[in-house]
Amino acid sequence: MTANRQPRPTPDNRELRLWRVGRALTLTFVAAVLVASGIFYGLVYLLDFQEIDTTAKLNAKTLFDLVKLSFGVVAGAGALVALVVAYRRQRVDEAGAHREATRLHTERFSQAVDKLGSDSPAVRLGGVHALAGLADDAPDDSLRQTCIDVLCAYLRLRYSPDPGEGPAHLEEHHHYLALREVRHTILRLIGDHYRQPKGTHRSWQGCDLDLTGVTIDCNMDFGGATFSGGAVSFGGATFSGGAVNFRGATFSGGKVSFRGATFSGSNVNFVGATFSGGVVFFVDATFSGGVVSFDDARFSGGNVNFGGATFSGGAVYFGGATFSGGAVSFGGATFSGGAVYSGGATFYSGAVSFGGATFSGGAVNFEIAEFSGGEVYFGGATFSGGAVSFSGATFSGGAAYFGGATFSGGEVYFSGATFSGGAVNFEGATSPAPHGLLASVGTPPPAGVTLPSAWLLPTP
Questions:
Q1: pLDDT per residue over 312-347, tens digit each?
Q2: Cβ–Cβ under 8 Å, residues 353 and 380
Q3: What is the distance between the alpha carbons of residues 240 and 361, in angstroms, rounded to a whole number?
Q4: Which residues of the chain have pLDDT under 50?
Q5: What is the DSSP string of 84-134?
Q6: How far apart are CA 71 and CA 390, in angstroms?
Q7: How far does Cα 289 stand from its chain's mean position?
Q8: How far apart are CA 163 and CA 166, in angstroms?
Q9: Is 443 helix (H, G, I), strand (E, B) or coil?
Q10: Cβ neighbours around 94 below 10 Å, total
């Protein structure tokens, strides 16, 4: 992502362009004459003067008026010259100040990068804080982005795994823990700066973050942040510990990618987040452990895509979420969390819950999804608008529960869905059966498929 980004048009990457003095003065005089003429003739028109009185004799009063007019023209010309010269001097001074600020920034940047490459973890920590401070004080957005890019690049570097705490590797273990602290500090600083309101001194909102392939095994807080521009990538990242917080965040523009990310042990929190624009990708992500919560999230615009994602363990919650606009896709996703049997009871190790969710607009797509294990729960969900499609989905294992769901509006499709195993329960669901469901289930329904009795009655 970083390699493809085009440089932003700042004074840092273009020369100061000023017209020659003669050309600038000529154009200024011409502009002044045109403006003055326009004002004069406008006033003549508005005041409705029909003609100008003429006299054949030049008297003293007229001569004096001509002298005053001449001096006024000369004074105006002098003021224009002074204005042009002052403007040019101001522009040159501003460019010089910017070059000086850039030079000082570059010197500090070089020193901070040298610290970041030190063998001493303590010196590296100093380099991390120095780069974060430089990003805050950068003269323009391009230099700020450069500092952020270096911090993200450090996180993407390969590092040696923990050798263990044995006596033979004690020193290496302590060195690993120290360098891990450096990485955790960068992640914490990124979250702290991204939560600052856009436009404030320490805000990094709108900047690009390339955390592709990074291992996030600590707490990271984006709570309340606004993702309205730039590109943020967690593609291929591994969330394996700690808590990552997007509670109350707003995704209203730009692009945020979790493509191919692995959620294997963290608690990732999108509770109350708003998805109202832009693109958020969870394509091909793997949810194999931990808890990922979208409870009470609002999907009202933009594109949120879970296509091809694998839900094989852990828990993913959309409880109370509202789908009122935009497009949310689980097309081709696999729900395969296995089941553990003990004493006649069944415990599902992979659970995805849409309990109490409201589908009132937009488009939600489960087409060609595979429900082959774990539990997917739509109990108490309300389908009152928009389009929700399970067309071509396969229910071959695990449990899919639609008990108590309300189908009161919109379009819900099960056309071409396959029910070949597992438990699919619509008991207590209200209103007419979704489109294509009864045809896909067949008569009588296969074992494991439970439908309300009213749906099985012959249509009058």
A1: 888 999 999 999 999 999 999 999 874 433 333 333
A2: no
A3: 34
A4: 1-14, 338-349
A5: HHHHHHHHHHHHHHHHHHHHHHHHHHHHHHHHHT-S-HHHHHHHHHHHHHH
A6: 85
A7: 24
A8: 8
A9: coil
A10: 12
